[in-house]
Design goal:
alpha/beta, 10 strands, disordered N terminus, about 450 residues
Length: about 450
């Protein structure tokens, strides 16, 4: 099937630029310049109905790997259905400071404000997974952001929000995500600061799509209520409400009573200014009284307690092992990680979620300590190697970290260690032999008979 895009030409006079730019309507344009003096670009999606003279809501979708086009592509169908412009900066990176990312984003804000008639009452920021922390910090530094949505990620530092940071936050997260308990704590903090928020949780990533739809609809309902609703708006809002209620019913039918109850609570707070929510409130009371709900809530509380105690142990033993360079404790860590994997395979939902949260937390704990060590001068290479060894225990498919261990071990002529991790790397499916041949500090290691025999064995297989 052939896709036909309509092109429009917009003449740009901002920042000293006077050349026309051809943009796709109904498609993504990438590599658009932020200015004529800075080598920064952004990706852009315009709905098919886009007209330059009208005001349009906009979502700035952030990706801290600089993949603006990919980030925009995750929203195009939803943006088309709602008539939203989507903008994805290409100059954001997790390797630079938050302040530099915020400045880069602000330049895109100003650039697109000059290009398009963006509706300043409907400027939103959105991010997925690891980019979420950056998105939640945007309202602290950039004025005019009306809403922030994060999908699959946590919050940066809600302590930074002050009385002037009035925006609408929507967080979408799986209960198996290690940030889930912290998100519940953050919800109380947002409420105390009187920041409008809805947290939409699911049992699996499969529900992300419908929860994103519900979240985007909540942004729109919030805007319509503030502007004063017409009869047509009321009909639209009723349709959005029906979709949210249907999702809650689906969650209940799958046995997720706690999830259904939580979603209904968010629906009541968002739609109450438009409709009577008495029937929904009665439904919530019935759910809360049910034996299933009480059992699920009790089980979740028990898992939270166990999770908290386990995290304390992990932090304590990791600090001890790093400070003493305790490579002998790798076996204990392997045992603990295998226990998390076993929990994650449980046929009991709450145990399964606990196992996945603990595994995710462990990976994040290793990564954070690696980041902190890499910032220290002089670099503590021995502690860093230990953390890399721990990291591959938690993620056997992390090929980059295996290669770092091999290169470092070969550098200090610990060839037995290098051979061990080389075989582990190959066992776990690595096949980029050219990369191995060009690995720094491994010249002497690569001419060893054992090295050649090991590669020959796995190449033949």
């Amino acid at each position: 099937m052939r896709h036909i895009f309509t092109f429009i030409a917009i003449f740009v006079f901002a920042a000293g630029m006077g050349q026309p730019i051809s943009l796709k309507k109904g498609g993504i344009s990438d590599g658009l310049p932020v200015s004529d003096t800075i080598a920064e670009t952004f990706a852009l999606f315009l709905p098919k109905a886009f007209e330059p003279k009208q005001k349009w809501p906009a979502i700035f979708v952030l990706d801290d790997k600089g993949r603006g086009k990919q980030a925009v592509g995750m929203l195009t169908s939803r943006a088309e259905a709602r008539g939203i412009v989507v903008i994805g900066p290409n100059a954001l990176h997790d390797s630079v400071s938050v302040s530099k990312n915020i400045l880069a984003l602000d330049r895109v804000f100003k650039r697109t404000a000059n290009l398009f008639s963006l509706d300043l009452e409907r400027i939103y920021v959105m991010a997925f997974d690891d980019s979420s922390n950056l998105a939640t910090l945007v309202p602290v530094f950039i004025k005019g952001v009306r809403g922030v949505m994060t999908v699959g990620g946590g919050m940066g530092n809600p302590d930074l929000y002050g009385s002037k940071n009035k925006f609408h936050y929507i967080g979408i997260l799986d209960r198996q995500d290690y940030q889930y308990p912290n998100m519940l704590v953050n919800e109380r903090m947002l409420n105390a600061k009187r920041i409008t928020n809805e947290l939409l949780f699911s049992d699996t990533p499969d529900d992300r799509g419908v929860l994103m739809d519900i979240g985007l609809d909540m942004f729109q309902v919030d805007y319509l209520v503030k502007q004063g609703m017409t009869q047509t708006d009321t009909l639209y809002v009723q349709q959005r409400l029906d979709i949210a209620l249907a999702q809650a019913a689906t969650m209940e039918s799958k046995g997720d009573f706690v999830g259904a109850y939580a979603l209904l609570g968010e629906v009541v707070s968002r739609y109450r200014p438009v409709f009577s929510m008495d029937s929904v409130s009665q439904k919530m009371k019935a759910l809360k009284k049910s034996k299933v709900f009480k059992a699920q809530r009790r089980m979740e509380s028990n898992m939270f307690l166990k999770e908290s105690l386990t995290k304390e142990d992990l932090i304590f033993y990791l600090e001890e092992d790093i400070s003493s360079y305790n490579f002998d404790n790798l076996g204990w860590w392997d045992y603990k990680i295998q226990g998390m994997d076993s929990l994650a395979r449980s046929d009991k939902k709450h145990q399964r979620q606990l196992g996945k949260r603990l595994k995710g937390y462990t990976k994040a704990l290793f990564n954070e300590n690696i980041r902190l060590l890499e910032e220290e001068k002089p670099l503590d290479e021995e502690a860093l190697v230990l953390l890399h060894m721990l990291k591959v225990l938690a993620d056997p498919k992390d090929y980059d970290t295996y290669l770092k261990i091999i290169a470092n071990s070969a550098k200090v002529e610990e060839h037995e260690t290098a051979l061990f991790y080389l075989e582990e790397l190959l066992i776990n499916g690595f096949t980029d032999y050219d990369r191995l041949d060009s690995l720094p500090d491994t010249g002497l290691f690569r001419i060893k008979k054992e090295y050649r025999e090991l590669l020959s064995k796995y190449k033949s297989e």
